[in-house]
Write a structure and sequence with these properties.
This protein is of the alpha/beta class. It has eleven helices and ten strands.
Length: 261
């Protein structure tokens, strides 16, 4: 697929997807959803793209849905996927990516933009970023995790404040509330994220995938059930090449040669 609204590039073992509608603050339209779905499918299938970074061009990460596209999507022919259907499919693909996903939150992140960012595993923000839900400002109901995922990130009371007011918070506040893992000066954001992604890509892709699976499941399990799940995965992992290679490399004082199996 020829991309018009995103840039998908591979930098060594790291995939970078940049939302690229800067004049529209990277607002999501039908074309962007289709292109994101295509690029995410490619990243998922390619073992050479071990880590994914998602960011935006210009002064926004993503300002949410393009409201004109949202209105146009209401007239979709019966039986055809509408804007909401495509959004659900694309965000689900990102949320369930078996590889580490880092959001480099470079600027304005509103409504669907916040939902997109919350699909990622680690969120690193620029100091100038302004972040919020924003759906209520236009009478739009969230459909990608605003009301369902945000309370899990910041707690119910804080989520309601962001949802009901539509207000934006600065990056430091969102780090304090647990949305952002780290906040960096604007000029340091992309180099720092690139370095972090490269460090992760040097690890065993198998162990990272399995860690992500167990960690994601744990939030919906009791402590006992989560610990049993972890133990079962641990036992399975001891039969892998990467487990044995890591121990052998340690004993031989050399870098491990992981194969992801």
């Amino acid at each position: 697929m020829h991309y018009e609204t995103i840039i998908h590039e591979q930098r060594g073992p790291v995939a970078w997807i940049t939302l690229n509608r800067p004049a529209e603050l990277n607002a999501v339209n039908q074309r962007m959803l289709e292109e994101l779905h295509d690029a995410l499918t490619a990243v998922r299938a390619d073992a050479g793209q071990a880590v994914l970074v998602l960011t935006g061009s210009g002064r926004a990460f993503c300002a949410g849905a393009d409201l004109k596209a949202l209105l146009a999507g209401l007239d979709t022919a019966p039986g055809e996927p509408n804007f909401a259907d495509r959004t659900l499919a694309t965000l689900s693909l990102l949320r369930n990516m078996p590889k580490p996903v880092i959001a480099a939150v470079n600027g304005l992140t509103i409504a669907g933009g916040l939902e997109l960012a919350m699909c990622c595993d680690i969120l690193i923000g620029a100091a100038s970023a302004r972040i919020g839900d924003g759906h209520a400002n236009f009478g739009v109901f969230p459909g990608g995790g605003g009301a369902a995922v945000l309370p899990r990130r910041v707690g119910l009371s804080r989520a309601k404040q962001l949802l009901f007011t539509g207000d934006l918070a600065d990056a430091a506040q969102m780090q304090a509330w647990g949305v952002l893992n780290e906040v960096l000066p604007d000029e340091e954001l992309l180099p720092a994220v690139a370095a972090l992604a490269e460090r992760m890509a040097a690890r065993s892709s198998l162990v990272l995938r399995r860690m992500k699976e167990v960690a994601n499941r744990s939030v919906d399990l009791s402590m006992d059930a989560a610990l049993r799940d972890e133990l079962l995965m641990c036992q399975q992992h001891t039969r892998s090449h990467d487990f044995r290679e890591g121990l052998a490399a340690y004993g031989e004082k050399r870098p491990p040669a992981f194969r992801g199996i």
